[in-house]
Amino acid sequence: MSTVTTSPGAPTTPRRDKAQLGLAALLAVVGAYTFYDATTLRVGFGDPVGPRLFPYVIGAGTFLLAVLLVVATLRGDVPEAEAGEDIDLSQPADWRTVLTLVGVLAFTVLTVSFLGWAVSGAILFAGSAWALGSRTVVRDVLVGAVLSVTSWYFFHEVLGVALSPGILDGVL
Question: Any idea where the domains of the chain sit in the sequence?
Answer without folding.
Answer: 18-74, 95-168
